[in-house]
Design a protein that fits this description.
With 240 residues, this protein is an alpha/beta fold. The protein has helices at residues 17-27, 61-68, 100-110, 112-125, 152-175, 195-198, 208-221; strands at 9-14, 32-39, 51-55, 76-79, 132-136, 180-185, 188-189, 205-206, 229-232. The protein contains seven helices and nine strands; from the N terminus they run E-H-E-E-H-E-H-H-E-H-E-E-H-E-H-E.
């Protein structure tokens, strides 16, 4: 249970590969008292006494609502859940390969959880003096930066996620003026999500721990005046 008047931070982080790395990175911070890490299919392995784990279906509105009943206050929420391939679903190289199953799966996993997390964490973040709400996005979700095409459903779901975060930042600039909203591009991270595609790219590859360290640095330095923007792992801003 979160202590309402505690000066140290209490965070909630979702997701597997990057989420687990972020939870451990924040747990190393002396200013962080506890991290709640949620999981869906497999319980994560954790090595810090500061990290508590709980199962949660982030696409279930009632489940997310009930989870936040366990808290009195939060100082940060990071959604690191993402989907690119699986269960017969693969990124579409051309429009001819687009199908409803792929599209709705991407939207359900990459966009909906952030909406529900924001909906139910709003009241808990309101009392934080320097709160943040962030989601892992992807550079391929940038409409302006799209030079290669393809990956219709994944790109669309990440672009939709970015719009959710931009719109949330506008609303919360009035309702939660001390809370910073951010979209984060973690770089190409070595993970089950990216593994089938990493041998086909010349991009720099990060371990989850490296990416988490970069993202924490960004979040530690953002201010409410920078809310509603899209950041790459190196601290540069990505166009929407």
């Amino acid at each position: 249970m979160m202590l309402k008047d505690s000066p140290k931070k209490h965070l909630l982080i979702t997701g597997s590969t990057i989420g687990v790395a972020l939870a451990h990175r924040f747990a190393q911070d002396d200013q962080v008292e506890s991290v709640t890490l949620t999981w869906h299919s497999r319980p994560p392995a954790t090595t810090s006494a500061k990290i508590n784990t709980m199962q949660l279906d982030l696409t279930n509105d009632e489940a997310v609502h009930n989870t936040f009943k366990n808290f009195e206050k939060l100082d940060g929420v990071i959604n690191a859940v993402g989907f690119l391939h699986g269960d017969g679903v693969q990124p579409e190289k051309s429009i001819s390969r687009t199908n409803p199953t792929s599209f709705f799966k991407n939207m359900e996993t990459n966009t909906l959880p952030t909406l529900l997390l924001a909906k139910h964490s709003r009241g808990l973040l309101k009392d934080s003096h320097a709160g943040f709400f962030a989601s892992i996005s992807a550079k391929v979700g940038s409409i302006e930066d799209n030079r290669l095409g393809g990956w219709y459903s994944y790109r669309a779901s990440k672009a939709a996620l970015n719009m959710v975060l931009k719109t949330l930042a506008i609303e919360w600039s009035f309702a939660l003026p001390k809370c910073t909203v951010a979209a984060l591009h973690p770089g190409t991270v070595i993970s089950p999500l990216s593994r089938p595609f990493t041998n086909k790219t010349n991009k720099r590859l990060f371990s989850p721990e490296e990416s988490a360290s970069h993202l924490k640095t960004i979040l530690d330095n953002l201010t409410p005046q920078q809310s509603g923007r899209f950041w790459s792992w190196d601290g540069t801003e990505i166009p929407w």
